[in-house]
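Batch manifest line 363
LIGAND: nicotinamide-adenine-dinucleotide
JOB: complex structure
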Amino acid sequence: MEILKIAEEMEMEEVVFCHDRDSGLKAIIAIHDTTLGPALGGTRMRAYASEAEALKDVCRLARAMTRKAALANLDLGGGKAVILGDPAKKPEALIRAYGRFVHRLGGRYITSVDSGFSSQDLEMVMRETPYAHGGPPKGGRGGDPSPTTAYGVFRGMEACLEAVGEKPSLKGKRVAIQGLGQVGRSLVALLIEAGAHVIATDIAAEKAGSCEAEFGTEPCPPDDIHRVECDIFAPCALGGAISAATIGELKCRIVAGAANNILAEEGLEEELHRRGLLYAPDYVINAGGLIHVAMEKTPYLSPEIREIVGGIKDRLVTIFARAAREDLPPLIVSNRMAAERIAAGRKWAALRTDFKSRCYSGA
Ligand code: NAD
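JOB STATUS: finished
ARTIFACT:
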């Protein structure tokens, strides 16, 4: 594996490999870009098939966080961390050792929750470092961002419907959800409340069963969910739901879900566009969690944060409109918009530095 080549290709600022002898911790922290502010992004814990897979995952996720923060209009950069291992086996010593690695970065990277790493785990990290957002709620602030993520996805789906010429209402729409974890389950609740027909699956049969019992979702084998005839396919599990193998089997009009890196490879956005399927860029539609976490130490309370997260709908409307005007896939447009904001940030940073050096040199 050519580690620095991967870092170069993904334009990473810094990649930190963490190993703790006593607890056996193996983790990678990837800082993609800090032009707009410190790199904020969750910690994912997963039993990766290989270290190369973990490195590629964390770099792609970190890059998406940079774009996510830029388009959510936050003064934050992008980063992410992965802990390699079974998320069911997470002793306190391992989590705390990880927290110490985060602390050593001095605030350049601020961590949070992600798949396999909960608010309770984060509370343990917080004993080692203040550079962690998304722990259990305190005084009406903070707590698990997943319901907020689900709310953003729900509002984003309204924008998608409008873009394909429908009313922005989920009532009567068929939505197929892959993954009923922290976000997927909250999304089911919102969709059922709005009157949608939800087909839902999870590789953990008990999660699918409990959604069926509580919300009346239609069950589906996990391997078939992307083939379901529906208005919206919502990947809410891990990345790669749309691959070269699955793309031809889709029977939806819209792909809009919470998962990060829904597209297994670059270029698939072009193929979706060619096939006339609308794809809501994952890092735009799932930004609710980041906004929730970023607002944790501000005076904003849940209703105000929900209002800000509702802005995801407007952002997607803008992206879809530009994509239609320029006949481009929405993902290409959102990547360009993120790059434009970061380039403007770099320009301002350069101007500030220039001003400072002139002041000190007396020029
Ligand atoms: P989670 O681990 O709680 O849930 C993921 C679920 O997907 C699990 O129940 C798992 O069993 C299931 N799953 C895995 N592979 C599957 C497959 N092939 N088919 C069906 N089900 C499968 O994670 P989460 O916090 O709900 O996050 C879900 C996705 O959303 C992740 O990609 C995450 O990065 C992304 N995301 C989460 C947040 C958040 O606030 N939690 C924010 C932004 C993005």
